[in-house]
Amino acid sequence: MAIVSLLVLLAILMVKWWSNRRRADLTNKLPGPYHYPFFGALPHFLFSPDKTWRYLHKFAKADALPIYKTLVLNTLYVNLMVPEDIQVLLSSGKYLNKGQTYQLLEPWVGKGLFNSSGMKWWERRKMTGPAFSIGTMRKFVEAFKEHAERFTQLIERESKKEYTEIEPLVSKGTMHVVCETVMGTKLDEDNEEVGKYLAASHRIGELFIHQLSRPWYAFLPIYLLTPSYWESRKVLKVLHDFTHNIIQEKWKNFAIKGASLKRGAGLLDLLIENSLDERIPVADIREEADAFMFAGHDTTTSMICFALLLLASHSEVQQKVYEEVEEVFSKTDDSTFYEDLQSMRYLDQVLKETLRLYPSGPMISRYITEEMTTHTGYILPKGTNVNVRIYDIHHDPRLYPDPYKFDPERFSPENCKNRHPFAYLAFSAGPRGCMGNKFSLLMGKTIISSILREYEVMPVDTPKSITLVAHVVLKTKEPIKLKFRRR
To answer: Less crowded by CB within 10 Å, the N or C end of the chain?
Structure first.
């Protein structure tokens, strides 16, 4: 028996040795910049968020490699830089696990659709899909239109100012839209809790980046001793209390009116209905609500703010959008509002080019649980975090000539024909692609078209004057400032 036990132990040790040896061999064959002994690239992530952003972008541009590695302590990150390799990763059902960095968001958004895997992910995606169907979007645009008109009224006051910091304005507007549509709860315009939620949402993103750049925080006894841990608990309470209150209010309505799910129901209605059928635990409703509040609000706010910045700085493009909007709305009425939005082809190109230049999610990541062979011939070891640096893909001159130029014609039907399907990743791609892409684009179209019908957007800040920073979604170091002038 002792001999058998010894042989089993030796076999286990041999497998582990071989596995570690193969991992080391495969890692050494991957190209990448110089790394400090033991620390790897860690020292470069201790900078301020704007310096960290510049460093990451510099890495990607350095040698125009199809792939490069980044080592942080003993954790391997591999960055894919060509569409063919990205397609191998994102289109396969084998590589659906989110990267390990997403675990840092679990205290906020839990382990629901946003970052779960396996059967739970598949069931949740199937369950929530109807909340973003065409039928639901047709219903949602009515709320988009109402809030866009209210938003435009707020700009009347802002137009008298020397300039407007647009993110707080846009952020509050999109928050009300998300609550009324996705959450099915209409909030008072002067609801103070909205402002608290928005401030907490911004701060938790900063704390996420702070924690991400300090790997030793992964050792819980150390993290518990830091001020950022205790601050994050307070911030998370604000975020969770907000969604909890919305859910409780929705539960009351279900209890009073009875549960009857109608076509075009919002996400929260679907979740509560499924909880009554015991297809989702009641406790899990909040994690899905938290995730969709974040994904639906922050990303759309980012897109609209950058779109207004670009339109203000390119008057000829703004004029062309204005003419399209006027032409469309002069021929129709409210009954065809959804179709009107769909027919705004040039505005659609503007938003897609905005998201090319400033993708709301500048990077996505997968954790591979088996070896992966890329199209370019590299073998990535099991247990690797594989990053898709969307911002850098979108600024690759091999894919987009003169990549920093704002040119909506890149997304004309003719110019899209020959583009690799994985060269544009504003909403990710493959099985885990963003479910809310239509929601975001329709909301953006509604708000921007409403503004441009009444106001001309004038530059104060420009694309050259802003500084991008590392954050959960793409943001600027200082708020974007613009001016509105009534037409």
So the answer is: N
